[in-house]
């Protein structure tokens, strides 16, 4: 009986055990088939535990000028990390001594550093000035051989030319996490990189397993953007604007250089400007050239004149009574307080920039409706479509009869500088108005495939070829005629066609600002006048003028230097009749590569050039200017010799342009701070250049010792008073 009960219990126990084993086995089979427990993917969990994924960083695209010079790029930077924990072999054992030595190199207060180095932490960073430092600064710190001082490498955005086309380029955060303005922002979809990754399996000790398949997702680098900007022309703009900024301290300045035949923007700058590497200090975020609409002043007369000629109502010999002109219950007066110049021809009225002449053309010859048809045809109501962000349209006053009169001579209507440049292409380009553009092409750096290529685009033809030619002829007399307001803008060796402008500035209290210099002084010029290749627009807002200084002085300083150098860089020959008299003033550079150093040096020096030799080699291997380039007497040329260990030259007093010539010749990156002329450099003069790949250049502003000749009393009256486009209403 007892044995029977034991047998039954044993059988029940066996049965339960078999059921449990069967259930457990079936669970194993289920898990093996489904690879899932309570919603958790076991395969993914294993892969996560035994796999390692590393990011493969892509590289943000660069921005380059038309010749391939880098304007914005991604470079490595370094952040200093101090190890404080004594469990490590190398740590900061003497915070006071370490702080003292680092303070001198990093320009950080010693007490601040010491406070960081005595914190209760395993490791610390040393603040903003110890982040994103350059390779050269890293080398300086390394040379101190301090215990516990390490470096972390990070990519950062760098603008090698500093304050250079900054409103065009814009900037990104240093770590490139956010693009803030300019092309960096508007073209971010092209420039932005995409990171990749690599996944591989590892063992319990985090060692990579061999013969196991890897998963690799290649990173995609951002695309490179090439601009129409020519760095040589842009540098001429930046340098001359710096000079004017220092001497005249205007509220703002704008300069644009365009190819008259294509609409390509060769240079563009504003003041105030900024250094994108130091974006914390930006004062002006506005690209005035495309965003700021203001009354243009007499530069608008160019297009009113073109309309009158196209309609056949401009007779240069016809006379009118200058001085004042009644429009219903209001009076337009010429800019010399309404005195005028008596009865003069319409041609002289253009040359003298007579408001009355253009009011009569608008109301009596053209008629308001026709005038506004040409305003539309020249594109002043709409954005140009230039490939820069935040462009503004024009604001055209057209409600009353007086609006047509004032619009014709550039008052009460507001337009942007880039609209004026676009309209000027029709004058310079046989009546064809070109759409301005600044992005030349976009290239995939991996396979060099061009993903976008811009082409010149004729937007419209507001005037005929014959009209454009006639306008150029008349605008040339604005420069050459004795009574012309554009006389200060004449350039030796080149015929220039152009028009001055002196726009009034609306006051917050109503009316316009008054007082000497409280105007926007401008000039739009084209050269050579018979077949323009270059258009230059310059505007200077409220310069600080002496009583005997005309508003044209700061404008002409910029225009003449920029136009002259632009024509030179574009290899445009001087006007034929001037070539004989000026043949000794320009020097055409030959090819000196592979020539004997001494012979090349003597030849160029004897021609009147300032020759700088890099190295003591016997043969020239590179020169700063291409064969055929024309330089003026005293201009610098740099020759690189075949010396294996050349010495760093003394750059004191060099202009920024010459610094970049040195960069071009040697391939050494120039990291420039400030503006003006060189006052300091690292490495120092006379040190070895052999292993140098970057130089630190400090610039400081410097006034020219020689002041330009003052205009005579008669010229001042012509230039200053005769271009005051005041509009008086009774």
TrEMBL record:
It catalyses: Preferential cleavage: (Ac)2-L-Lys-D-Ala-|-D-Ala. Also transpeptidation of peptidyl-alanyl moieties that are N-acyl substituents of D-alanine. Residues 583-643 form the PASTA domain. It is found in: Membrane. Transmembrane segments: none annotated. It comes from the Bacteria. The keyword Membrane applies. Its EC number is 3.4.16.4. GO terms for biological process: cell wall organization. One of its GO terms (cellular component) is plasma membrane. Belongs to the transpeptidase family. This is serine-type D-Ala-D-Ala carboxypeptidase. It comes from Salipaludibacillus agaradhaerens.
């Amino acid at each position: 009986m007892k044995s029977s009960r034991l047998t039954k219990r044993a059988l029940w126990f066996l049965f339960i055990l078999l059921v449990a084993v069967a259930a457990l086995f079936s669970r194993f089979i289920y898990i093996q088939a489904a690879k899932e427990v309570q919603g958790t993917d076991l395969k993914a969990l294993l892969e996560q535990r035994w796999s390692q994924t590393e990011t493969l960083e892509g590289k943000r695209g660069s921005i380059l000028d038309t010749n391939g010079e880098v304007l914005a790029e991604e470079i490595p930077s370094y952040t200093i990390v101090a190890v404080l924990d004594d469990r490590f072999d190398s740590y900061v054992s003497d915070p006071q001594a370490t702080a003292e030595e680092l303070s001198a190199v990093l320009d950080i207060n010693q007490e601040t550093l010491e406070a960081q180095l005595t914190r209760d932490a395993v490791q610390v960073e040393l603040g903003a000035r110890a982040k994103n430092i350059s390779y050269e600064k890293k080398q300086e710190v390394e040379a101190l051989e301090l215990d516990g001082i390490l470096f972390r490498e990070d990519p950062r955005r760098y603008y090698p030319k500093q304050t250079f086309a900054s409103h065009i380029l814009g900037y990104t955060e240093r770590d490139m996490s956010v693009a803030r303005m300019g092309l960096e922002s508007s073209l971010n979809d092209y420039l932005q990189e995409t990171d990749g990754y690599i996944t591989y399996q590892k063992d319990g000790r985090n060692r990579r397993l061999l013969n196991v398949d890897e998963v690799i997702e290649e990173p995609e680098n951002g695309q490179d953007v090439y601009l129409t900007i020519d760095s040589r022309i842009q540098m001429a703009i930046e340098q001359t604007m710096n000079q004017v900024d220092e001497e005249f301290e205007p509220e703002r300045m704008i300069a644009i250089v365009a190819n008259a035949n294509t609409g390509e923007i060769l240079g563009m700058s504003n003041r105030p400007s900024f250094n994108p590497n130091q974006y914390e200090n930006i004062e002006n975020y506005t690209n005035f050239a495309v965003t700021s609409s203001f009354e243009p002043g007499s530069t608008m007369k160019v297009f009113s004149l073109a309309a009158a000629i196209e309609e056949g109502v401009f007779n240069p010999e016809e006379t009118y009574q200058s001085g004042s002109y009644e429009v219903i219950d209001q009076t337009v007066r010429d800019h010399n307080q309404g005195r005028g110049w008596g009865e003069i021809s319409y041609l002289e009225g253009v040359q003298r920039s007579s408001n009355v002449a253009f009011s009569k053309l608008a109301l009596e010859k053209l008629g308001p409706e026709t005038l506004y048809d040409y305003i539309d045809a020249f594109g002043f109501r709409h954005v140009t479509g230039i490939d820069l962000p935040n462009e503004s349209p024009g604001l055209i006053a057209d409600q009353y009869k007086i609006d047509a009169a004032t619009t014709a001579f550039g008052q009460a209507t507001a337009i942007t500088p880039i609209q004026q440049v676009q309209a000027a292409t029709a004058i310079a380009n046989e009546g064809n108005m070109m759409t301005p553009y600044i992005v030349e092409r976009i290239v995939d750096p991996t396979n060099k495939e061009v993903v976008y290529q811009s082409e010149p685009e004729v937007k419209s033809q507001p005037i005929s070829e014959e009209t454009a030619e006639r306008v150029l002829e008349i605008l040339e007399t604005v420069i050459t005629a004795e009574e012309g307001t554009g006389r200060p803008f004449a350039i030796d060796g080149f015929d220039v066609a152009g028009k001055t402008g002196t726009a009034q500035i609306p006051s917050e209290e109503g009316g316009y600002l008054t007082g000497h210099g409280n105007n926007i002084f401008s000039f739009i010029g084209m050269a050579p006048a018979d077949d323009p290749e270059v258009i230059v627009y310059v505007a200077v807002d409220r310069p600080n003028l002496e009583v005997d200084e005309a508003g044209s002085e700061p404008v002409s300083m910029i225009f003449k230097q920029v136009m002259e150098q632009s024509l030179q860089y574009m290899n445009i020959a001087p006007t034929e009749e001037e070539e004989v008299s000026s043949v000794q003033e320009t020097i055409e550079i030959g090819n000196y590569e592979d020539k004997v150093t001494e012979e090349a040096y003597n030849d160029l020096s004897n021609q009147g050039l300032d020759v700088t030799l890099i190295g003591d080699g016997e043969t020239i291997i590179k020169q700063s200017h291409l064969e055929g380039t024309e330089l003026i007497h005293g201009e610098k040329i740099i020759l690189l010799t075949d010396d294996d260990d050349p010495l760093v030259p003394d750059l004191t007093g060099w202009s920024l342009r010459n610094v970049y010539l040195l960069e071009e010749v040697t391939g050494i990156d120039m990291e420039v701070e400030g503006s003006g002329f060189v006052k300091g450099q690292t490495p120092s003069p006379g040190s070895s250049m052999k292993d140098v790949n970057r130089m630190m250049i400090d610039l400081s502003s410097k006034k020219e010792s020689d002041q330009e000749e003052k205009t005579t009393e008669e010229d001042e009256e012509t230039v200053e008073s005769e271009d005051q486009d005041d509009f008086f209403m009774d």
